[in-house]
Write a structure and sequence with these properties.
UDP-N-acetylmuramoyl-L-alanine:D-glutamate ligase; about 450 residues; 3 domains; Rossmann fold
Length: about 450
């Protein structure tokens, strides 16, 4: 009898896992407590995969040999507790997909910068002519990529939720961009639990593998020695010179992956296509990966200078009456918003707010005093933002839609200023997700 695999959640991750499991001959069932989007439903039907939506039928789930759980479903979920009580293995889609490929996996995690770094590394490897795919937490699920085609390299963005249900999966190259408090609601408000999740990316690595990390990141540095890491460690830094790794000095990036420093890579920071210190970090991580895979220095340099940033990450959204609009909807936490504000060079009207994940706004206080003239709140509960910044800006205004927020910001902005959407919060109170929020913002700017 075919092994029965039940997939909880039918988003891109669940649907990709279902397609791969069906292709490999498993008895597959997909169960979603919510409505399954039409595009995924038609795919499941096309592959003759049984599914249910808007409820979970326990007897159809608890008879599984193995369960693939969507990263969005918490272990605190009652059904997940029942599954675990019956000792049915619960794994992530990345764990499942990895069983069916022997390709090299370049895996990138971190609180901020992981999407940009993932996209940048993919751009670099594509430019080098490698047979490479990009996915995971962005775009296409790893399982779908494995089902569709044989690639030799996968560049995967991995969230802490995906890493939580990862056991035998191994990253050939792992990157931890940084670690700052985020998603603490899922980790019992214990930062150490979240840190442990991020470091799972080093699990199963051997001495032939590589871990790349930021040597300036306090939580990474304070925790790296707590884990048994066999991989070769290559750091990057803005603050100190490194014998092995990448560092910045006098406006130049230097990168070397061997003590002998035989073939260092150098590049002027002002030649990078991405601006701001946080993006220089992302570019350093990509340069190291380029060297790990022996990619020509000219190709690395070209890739870092012509890369176009991802949608919703400091994305220009238009200029209206001398006011610049910037879409940074992907900033779903305080640190991301800090990076966005740090890169602002004009007086700023800051659009912020949404679902607060236990945010500590104190971190932004100095940056707001220095850069922000007015805050426009966009969320259902803006109390914490008022309390945190009321004394630091000229005015705080509440709005409840992207259209209203853009309209108000435009009215209050003066020519030569910028309006920055960088919410520092999740989007689920008013929007489907951060992409929906970013697109509504851009549409509202177009409609001015």
């Amino acid at each position: 009898m075919n092994k029965r695999i039940v997939i909880l959640g039918s988003g891109e991750s669940g649907t990709g896992a279902a397609i791969l499991a069906k292709q490999k001959g498993f008895d597959v069932f997909v169960s979603d407590s919510g409505t399954i989007p039409e595009n995924f439903k038609s795919e499941l039907n096309a592959h003759q995969i049984a599914f249910e939506e808007n409820h979970h039928t326990e007897e159809k789930i608890l008879n599984a040999n193995e369960i693939i759980k969507s990263p969005g479903i918490s272990d605190k979920n009652e059904l997940v507790k029942k599954i675990k009580a019956q000792n049915i293995p619960v794994i992530s889609e990345i764990e499942f997909a990895a069983r069916f490929t022997s390709a090299k996996k370049i895996c990138i995690t971190g609180t901020n910068g992981k999407t940009t770094t993932t996209s940048l590394v993919y751009h670099l490897m594509q430019k080098a002519g490698l047979n490479v795919a990009c996915g995971g937490n962005i775009g296409t699920s790893f399982a779908r990529l494995v089902a569709e085609k044989n690639y030799e390299y996968y560049v995967l963005e991995l969230s802490s939720f995906q890493l939580d249900d990862m056991y035998d999966f191994k990253a050939d190259v792992a990157v931890i961009t940084n670690i700052t408090p985020d998603h603490l609601d899922r980790y019992d408000y214990e930062i150490q639990n979240y840190i442990n999740s991020k470091f799972r990316i080093t699990q199963n690595q051997t001495e032939n593998d590589v871990l790349i990390y930021c040597a300036d990141d306090e939580l990474t540095l304070n925790n790296i020695s707590k884990f048994e890491i066999k991989a070769k460690q290559i750091p990057f830094s803005f603050l100190k010179k490194l014998a092995i790794g990448a560092f910045a000095e006098n406006g130049i990036i230097h990168s070397s992956i061997s003590k002998e420093n035989l073939n260092p890579f150098t590049m002027y920071i002002n030649e990078l296509s991405l601006r701001g210190r946080h993006n220089t970090y992302n570019s350093m991580a990509a340069a190291i990966i380029g060297q790990v895979f022996n990619i020509r220095k000219e190709t690395i340099r070209e890739s870092l200078s012509d890369f176009q940033n991802v949608e919703h990450r400091l994305e220009p959204a238009g200029m209206v009456g001398g006011v610049e609009f910037i879409n940074d909807s992907k900033a779903t936490n305080v640190n991301s918003a800090w990076y966005a504000l740090e890169s602002m060079e004009k007086p700023t009207i800051w659009i912020a707010g949404g679902v607060d994940k236990g945010n500590e706004y104190a971190l932004l206080k100095e940056m707001v005093k220095e850069k922000v003239r007015i805050i426009v709140c966009m969320g259902l509960d803006n109390r914490k933002i008022h309390e945190a910044f009321g004394a630091d800006v000229d005015m705080i205004v509440n709005t409840t839609s992207a259209k209203e927020a853009v309209h108000v910001a435009h009215k209050l902005a003066k020519a030569g200023e910028a309006v920055l959407l960088s919410p520092a919060c999740a989007s689920f109170d008013l929007f489907k997700n951060y992409e929906d929020r970013g697109r509504q913002f851009k549409k509202a700017v177009k409609d001015l």
